[in-house]
Design a protein that fits this description.
Length: about 250
């Protein structure tokens, strides 16, 4: 059994059910079945990331417009993908891309991917988040650290991605102690290379670590030739069913 840090009973429950956060499919022309599946009634989605062309692109894409519109009409939150490149991207670049997501695709918020995790990067990320909220007061902001960042980041965003990586690492991972001060709705985990036979174990790990937004897939990075998040897991129906009815203790 994994050696994990359990969420203390003193942490208040928010009542938020465990759900799926989709890190971003391939373009709708390349993954039409994937985008169609997201509007199936009963799919337990918290949000879906729209990544047009490593960002919003240079002009509105009609296929992405249609895909985003179907999701929003189904009541699914659509987040624009912004690549912070661990602090290498400039503030004006990120805000310009965010504005295009809002104007062209009516994005409900943003995933600030490859977000810095160190304390030194916090002021600039805080500045960026402030500008994103100026664009849209109710923007849902997810910081894609992929690891446990300095706890100060939790005071600025709606959610943090505190794990992104393979199942071989996830099954033995531990939550940082400071995460116990926050409810599960504040944390997301993205896990690839997860075999079907370990799905229940992975769901238990997520619950023990206090993460309510998940993405599990049996896909891998295929030696860097394609991202593991670009298409449906082979056990899509199974994970929709299990997450939709809640995670057992």
């Amino acid at each position: 059994m994994p050696h994990l840090t359990s969420t203390p009973v003193s942490v208040p429950s928010t009542g938020l059910r465990t759900g799926l956060g989709v890190p971003g499919w391939a373009h709708p022309l390349l993954a039409p079945a994937e985008w169609s599946e997201l509007t199936r009634p009963g799919t337990p989605l918290h949000w879906v990331v729209l990544n047009v062309a490593d960002g919003p692109g240079v002009q509105p894409d009609p296929h992405c417009l249609e895909a985003a519109g179907r999701l929003r009409n189904a009541g699914v939150r659509v987040l624009g993908h912004l690549d912070a490149a661990y602090g290498a991207r400039s503030f004006p670049e990120l805000v310009s891309e965010a504005r295009r997501y809002v104007e062209w695709y009516r994005a409900d918020g943003f995933l600030l991917d490859r977000c810095p995790a160190e304390r030194a990067g916090l002021p600039e990320v805080r500045r960026t988040i402030g500008a994103l909220r100026d664009l849209q007061d109710d923007a849902h902001i997810v910081l894609g650290h992929g690891t446990h960042p300095h706890p100060g980041y939790a005071e600025n965003a709606d959610q943090l991605v505190t794990f992104r990586g393979p199942w071989s690492d996830y099954r033995w991972s531990q939550a940082a102690e400071w995460t116990a001060d926050y409810p599960p709705e504040r944390f997301c985990h993205f896990v690839h290379g997860l075999p079907r036979g370990h799905l229940d174990e992975a769901l238990r790990v997520a619950r023990w670590q206090g993460a309510a937004t998940l993405w599990f897939t049996d896909r891998s990075d295929r030696d860097g030739t394609a991202g593991p998040w670009e298409d449906l897991p082979g056990y899509w129906d199974e994970i929709v069913s299990r997450v939709g009815r809640g995670v057992s203790e």
